[in-house]
Amino acid sequence: MASQVSATFLWFDWASFSGWERAEILSAVLVSLGCLGELVWIFRKGPPKESFIIREAFEEKKHSREKLFAILIAVGVTAEVITLLHSLRESGEFRVEFGKLQQTNAWIWQTNWFLQMDVETLRSNNVVLQNKLQPRIITPIQVTNFIRLTENITKIPVKICTSTMNGDFSFAVHVRDMFTRAGFGVAPGANASFGLHVRTEATIRPPGESYEWPHILMVMYGTNDLPKQDPIKTIITYRSADNIIRPITVNTNDHTEICYDILDALQKTGLSVVIWRSTQKVALGEFEIEIPPRRN
């Protein structure tokens, strides 16, 4: 037991304790020694009562030892009270510091949460930008759906235009091929391969406009040169046996009706279409399809 206690005291790194902590430990040691000493002398048996002289000497020694150990206890307890007050003050300071650390930790956690939200926003924006940078294509399923949706639309030659300045010739080829597969012929005047009408001037927004280009501009005759989502006239449709709602042309000689029927079919294939009315690009009763720039 004594060896274990000694080993414990020797194991302590006394240099790591402050002066107040050392005083508190020594105070506890004094109290412990005083209590143990008193305990020993209380239960220690003296000489027989018949040996009066020896008995008297023993009692005097016992009384003096008890006073000594009582003094040790008194000194130790007094020192413990003094060090306790200092420990309470340090504990209060530690609690204040701990409260500040908790507030700092909460601020860091909140800041980290906002940063994570910003990262997610940047990641989603990056995905959107990457999608915008990908080349536009017409997928095989879109071609199939367009062919089925236009089965009952009067087939006429359709003028599909693009510009050498728009920079997305391949998408215009895809659109032209889709119309050809659906049975729409090439309008007279095609000046490029694949039946396209290619202009040298770029498709430019009017000053002050910042809208995003759709996949397709449906150019119709009108006095408003701004692309806009016109209220679409009532399109006559029917539900086929395969549960597909298809537009159907009633007036086969009405190019305006055919234009709206084609527009409905394009939108149902997942392509964005905007009507652009112009008095310069087309004549009254005519329409054409223009492929706008890919970049915005």
Strand order of the largest sheet: 2-1-8-3-7-4
Order of helix and strand elements from N to C terminus: HHHHEHEEEEEHEE
Q: Give the percentage of residues in beta strands.
A: 5-15%
Helix content: 40-55%
- Find the count of extended strands (DSSP E, 2+ residues): 8
Uncertain stretches of 5 or more adjacent residues? none
Radius of gyration: 48 Å
Instruction: Specify the number of helices.
Output: 6
Could you tell me how far the N terminus lies from the C terminus, measured between alpha carbons in angstroms? 86 Å
In this structure, how is the largest beta sheet organized? Answer: 6 strands, mixed
Overall geometric form: rod-shaped
Tell me the structural class.
Answer: alpha/beta
What's the structural domain tally?
2
Mean pLDDT rating: 79
Provide a concise account of the structure shown.
The protein is an alpha/beta fold. Helix content is 52%, strand content 10%. A six-stranded mixed beta sheet has the order 2-1-8-3-7-4, with helices on one face. It has a two-stranded antiparallel sheet with strand order 5-6.
Topology:
Blueprint: H1 2-11, H2 19-43, H3 52-133, H4 140-149, E1 160-163, H5 169-182, E2 197-199, E3 216-221, E4 227-228, E5 237-239, E6 245-247, H6 255-268, E7 273-278, E8 287-290
Parallel strand pairs: 1-2, 1-8, 3-7
Antiparallel strand pairs: 3-8, 4-7, 5-6
Helix pairs in contact: 2-3, 4-5
Characterization of this structure:
This protein is α/β, with parallel strands linked by helices and 296 residues long. It has two domains: 130 residues, no CATH class; 151 residues, no CATH class. It has six helices and eight strands, in the order ααααβαβββββαββ. The strands form two sheets. Strands 2-1-8-3-7-4 form a six-stranded mixed sheet, covered by helices on one side. A two-stranded antiparallel ribbon has the order 5-6. β1, α5 and β2 form a beta-alpha-beta unit. α4 packs across α5. The protein is rod-shaped. The relative contact order is 0.10.
